[in-house]
Design brief:
By secondary structure, the chain is mainly alpha-helical. It is built from four helices and no strands. Among the domains are: 55 residues, no CATH class; 30 residues. Helix 1 packs across helix 2.
């Protein structure tokens, strides 16, 4: 029995019972290899298409003349107590709204900044991704 005849017989559920164990095993192996081969070929084609698209889309842009950057101007004498009072007022208001109570019932004695649990490599990756978008 040729491979095409075997696969045609293997495709019909009623005729599978008429095949011997050797024919069933060989048809199963041929089907498996054929499916894996088609999948591998499709993935290789996708790889080449993606590689071609990245080289096509990542061509060097035209050079832009460099503009000198202005230095940031700092304002002398920024009042940090006013900023702290605004921060306390904002936190108090947010807590009062969350707890559904009056702001007079809430007393904030200390504010400590908590560092995020995100590792440094993750932060660096996020910054790199954000900078690469421009």
């Amino acid at each position: 029995m040729t491979t095409t005849e075997l696969l045609a017989t293997f495709a019909d559920p009623k005729l599978i019972h008429s095949l011997g164990i050797g024919d069933k095993l060989s048809a199963g192996l041929i089907t498996t290899v054929l499916g894996m081969g088609i999948t591998f070929s499709a993935l290789v084609i996708l790889l080449f298409i993606i590689t071609w698209m990245t080289t096509l889309l990542n061509q060097a842009p035209a050079t832009v003349p460099e503009v000198p950057k202005e230095e940031a101007v700092t304002k002398p004498g920024i009042n940090t107590t006013a900023n702290d009072n605004e921060l306390v007022a904002a936190i108090t208001t947010a807590l009062a709204m969350t707890l559904k109570t009056s702001t007079s019932n809430i007393v904030i004695r200390n504010i400590n900044k908590v560092d995020s649990p995100t590792p440094n490599w993750n932060k660096a990756g996020i910054i790199e991704q954000m900078n690469s978008r421009f």
